[in-house]
Design goal:
The protein is α+β, with helices and mostly antiparallel strands. It has one domain. The longest helix is centred in the N-terminal third of the chain and has 30 residues. It is globular, with a radius of gyration of 19 Å.
Length: 276
């Protein structure tokens, strides 16, 4: 009974959130032609694909197109393009123990809606001769639709962190995330794999993107229009629309009632990674 009640509450919350988002986004979309076009020199634009593959207990994979912004946080903090839902450049430097520029890879809000399963802060150190070295990254992970968020530092070359957040109804809270990120340039990539104590390396998620010339983006708002919404649609579709997954995989709730089995896990598995 308690499980059904929790599931019903989550469903009601989800439906209410969807209705509110649809109404707000429709209204703001109608106003887009009447607003002043914006273009910030603190942004770089990327276009690529996200790939997810689950290999056990049944195989399931999908790919979708995505657009990201790489934001120079030092420039953004001094402009009108503030980012209240993210760390500032100074906060990121403090957390990552770096002294150089900070860039944020994220999907900007569009017509009143934000959906960012994963944002990455690239934190550089300044070395002799003004050379920049990517020393640390900060991952900002948000689950859907609950909006719970964790933030942690990792070595971009490769690092391991004990799974800190419930992100999928088809996965338990055991295991570690192996995460790595390339230096952003004309191309960038982020890869995460799950190392599970019984299922092994059973899940992989990757982002691969190419830089888009600034000359081809005349309006930031139109470039990212409905991008967060599209990401949300993909998430909901692959959670609720895949009957085979629902039938053959155990469903794990985000409720603390179902997370009690992870209490007492050793912090030693969070190698070289610090939680905020």
């Amino acid at each position: 009974i308690e499980i059904r009640a929790l599931s019903l509450m989550e469903l009601v919350y989800l439906l209410g959130s969807l209705i509110s988002t649809l109404f707000t986004s429709l209204l703001l979309s109608l106003l887009l032609p009447f607003r002043r076009r914006s273009h910030s020199h603190s942004l770089s634009f990327y276009k690529g694909t996200v790939f997810h593959e689950r290999r056990r207990p049944i195989h399931h994979s999908f790919t979708y197109s995505v657009r990201y912004a790489l934001i120079d946080l030092d420039s953004a903090s001094s402009s009108a393009n503030s980012l209240p839902n993210h760390l500032s450049a100074d906060e990121a430097r403090r957390v990552s123990a770096t002294n150089g520029p900070v860039f944020l890879l994220t999907i900007p809000e569009s017509v009143g809606y934000e959906q960012n399963p994963l944002s990455i802060y690239y934190c550089y150190d300044l070395e002799e001769g003004s050379a920049q070295n990517l020393r640390n990254c900060i991952a900002e992970v948000t689950n859907t639709p609950w909006g719970e968020r964790v933030t942690f530092v990792f070595n971009p070359n490769s690092d391991l962190v004990a799974k800190p957040l419930h992100v999928s109804p088809f996965m338990d809270m055991f295991g570690n995330w192996n995460i790595k990120a390339s230096v952003p340039g004309d191309n960038l990539s982020v890869a995460i794999s799950v190392q599970h104590p019984t299922l092994g390396n059973y899940f992989t998620a990757t982002l691969r993107a190419k830089k888009v010339p600034l000359s081809s983006v005349s309006d930031e708002s139109l470039y990212f229009w409905l991008m967060p919404h599209k990401v949300a649609v993909w998430i909901y579709w692959h959670v609720s629309g895949r009957q085979a997954m629902v039938e053959k995989c155990f469903i794990y709730s985000t409720s603390k009632v179902f997370q009690s089995d992870i209490q007492g896990r050793s912090d030693s598995s969070r190698s070289k990674t610090s939680m905020l």
